[in-house]
Each structure stands twice: as C-alpha cells, then as structure tokens.
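User: Can you write out an input/output pair for a complex, sequences first and structure second?

Assistant: Here is one pair. Inputs:
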Amino acid sequence: DAGITQSPRYKITETGRQVTLMCHQTWSHSYMFWYRQDLGHGLRLIYYSAAADITDKGEVPDGYVVSRSKTENFPLTLESATRSQTSVYFCASNSGGGHGYTFGSGTRLTVV
Amino acid sequence: AQSVTQPDIHITVSEGASLELRCNYSYGATPYLFWYVQSPGQGLQLLLKYFSGDTLVQGIKGFEAEFKRSQSSFNLRKPSVHWSDAAEYFCAVGDWDNQGGKLIFGQGTELSVKP
C-alpha cells in the first residue's frame, strides 16, 4: 500500500547500543523529516532531507545520524543510545511547494 | 527565529459546546500554517492548512481556523465538540527558507471532552 511506514513500532534498547529506526515512503516525495515527540516539547525536528544524498540538521541533531541513499528511505541511527533519547519518533515526507506533510505512525523507543 | 506558541496545555469542554484552540506564531514572511490532530498512540493527521487567500479556512471533521495577521494568530474552532474530538492538537508553521521547508510545531494542546 502507498504511504509512509516506520519500523519498528516499538523498541527497547540498552544505553550505549546503536539502534536504527527505519522510514520508507512510496510516493517518491523529495523531502523527508525526522521528529521526536516529548511531553511538554511538542515535536522537534532532528534531521531533514531535501533529496537523496542531501541531509541537514534540525533543532535537536546531537546523538543522531541519518542517511538517504535512496529517495524512498530515510533511516535514523542513534549511534550510542542514551536515556534522554527515550521518545516517540515520527518520520514525515513532503512533496514540496508548501503542501502538507504526511506522518508515519511513529516508533516508540525506550532506552534503559 | 520562527516559533509557534500554543498557550493552553490542556482544555476541557463539554460535549456539544463550542471550542477554540489558540495558536500564535512568529514568522518573518507570510506564513504557511497548519493544524494537526493526534489521537492517543497514533500519528498526526492534517486538519487544515492556510497558504494564502481567504483567511477563514475549512478543514476536516467540522473544524475551521482563522488567520489573523495583525494578531499573528491562527486559532482553531469547532462549533460543537464531539466526544471523539478528544485528542492532542498541534499548530505548526512551515519554514520555507529552503526548498520544501520544515514544520515548526507548537507544544500542543490536549483536549478532553466531558459527557
């Protein structure tokens, strides 16, 4: 089915481990985004990408790495997970030109 | 810097009553403005958006919002709230400084509906 898919839906990991959250979209949208959602902070932008091989930092990029070798995929990697990275992570895509964004269902990550 | 403020963290209204959720933004140019709704455990769904033109925007589920440039506001309204409207609501401004831009969100307003 067309859409934006995030995996896994839930993840528990230990402090210091590397973990990768996956995001896949089927529309060939140029723009993709990673947000984290925390109580009291709304959604904050981690990284975004305007096209394959083009990425840029958002508001809270520290501790995260992204790549975009293919238009449809935009994985987010926590290189060494910390408890402060416990959050719900949302991926989004946008076709550009000011249109609305479409969000995935989110990944709830717990770092213990 | 661009920012969005939702002054009300939590609002409770009775079913059938009218609703207004406040949103104020700070943006240097003409803003692109959005309202999203998030049900518990779910992703975000677009309710409505404003780009230009008529300042009163109609959205899904009976919601509307009015853009007031002089007040830097984009308040969301609904004339009669249903129990299923209980959710968290996010206002956002589109930052189109670079192509495609990015959304800057407010902190959200949680809506509870009393029977």
